[in-house]
């Protein structure tokens, strides 16, 4: 059958174990879900994800607290990334049929003086820090100096990102966005090609009380070719982006977008879209797992966010129509039990469910690229793609594979 509406929810950074090429990224040993489960000592309560088959994905190496379902309601598997990076942009673009084949620019020693000088000249402000840094640590360590001097805090990470932090009372959000837009214009190649420029406004009276606000905005590299969102849009389907989806794809192919204040705000938007009359694809990113807990190496908060999402997932499952399809996955890992503060190269989970699924409790196996997700969505709507992925749509209707043991 063809589903009239497809909902894909990306649990940003919720990886499910080391990818085969993890060593190439200096990421031997990460396991986001596994290590969060271990931290909770079997008390990680994810009943809705479990009944869809989360625990069945790797039944030979269970996630503590997430037992394999005897008869999973959905189909389950995992996906391997082929893109050259492990950033959100790489993961989402690949899901939508556009793998990132060439590594983007990274700056482990900080950004070149020529680039920093241009940003300083345009903004009329000094630039401080200019090196890899944790986002929360950098405002703790330099936020008061930024407030006192009006400088820009510029920093990076292991990913292809240039982040600019400023206190909202010192540099308005509008001004910060204008500076980031200019920085974006400088790094689209060929000398420097950076995946994302991220505005990181914060508030608070002093270093012990600074908090980053929901006015974060990602200025992403324009997609280097058409994506499955463009293809769906061109075919006349509704394409709805929730969370940072609109930023990641620079608005390309999206007919309606929602900004998220938090994971729960994002789920409110999912509920709103589910209650509306649309025909097409709703693509959601929930970033708190990554921004609030993964990068901060906070397994307790990460696990609580998973449990909070699981509760809201119950409402989604109750409201799905027979001709709706739900897909749940992630874009990379960010193991709070791993060293450092960067993303981790991992498999990502893949869950699929519809109330009308003829034969649930089946494995989708190990998908060789994230692009299989987009290929499946295109297949459902009979839209031609770029042949970068393989559809698993038929497996959602017929039980052609044995359940993973």
TrEMBL record:
Q: Which CDD domains match?
A: PPM
* Enzyme category, top tier: isomerase
What are the record keywords, sorted? Cytoplasm, Isomerase, Manganese, Metal-binding
Per the record, the pathway is:
Carbohydrate degradation; 2-deoxy-D-ribose 1-phosphate degradation; D-glyceraldehyde 3-phosphate and acetaldehyde from 2-deoxy-alpha-D-ribose 1-phosphate: step 1/2
Q: Where does Mn(2+) 2 bind?
A: 290, 295, 343
Q: Which cofactor does it need?
A: Mn(2+)
Q: Which InterPro entries match?
A: Alkaline_phosphatase_core_sf, DeoB, Metalloenzyme, Phosphopentomutase_DeoB_cap_sf
Q: Where's it found, cell-wise?
A: Cytoplasm
- EC no.? 5.4.2.7
Q: Which domain of life is it from?
A: Bacteria
Q: How is the cofactor bound?
A: Binds 2 manganese ions.
- Known catalysed reaction(s)? alpha-D-ribose 1-phosphate = D-ribose 5-phosphate; 2-deoxy-alpha-D-ribose 1-phosphate = 2-deoxy-D-ribose 5-phosphate
Q: Any keyword Nucleus?
A: no
Q: Name one Pfam family in it.
A: Metalloenzyme
Q: Where is the Metalloenzyme domain?
A: 5-384
Per UniProt, Mn(2+) 1 binds at 12, 331-332
Q: What does this protein do?
A: Isomerase that catalyzes the conversion of deoxy-ribose 1-phosphate (dRib-1-P) and ribose 1-phosphate (Rib-1-P) to deoxy-ribose 5-phosphate (dRib-5-P) and ribose 5-phosphate (Rib-5-P), respectively.
Q: Which family does it belong to?
A: Belongs to the phosphopentomutase family.
Protein name (database record): Phosphopentomutase
Query: What organism is this sequence from?
Result: Furfurilactobacillus curtus
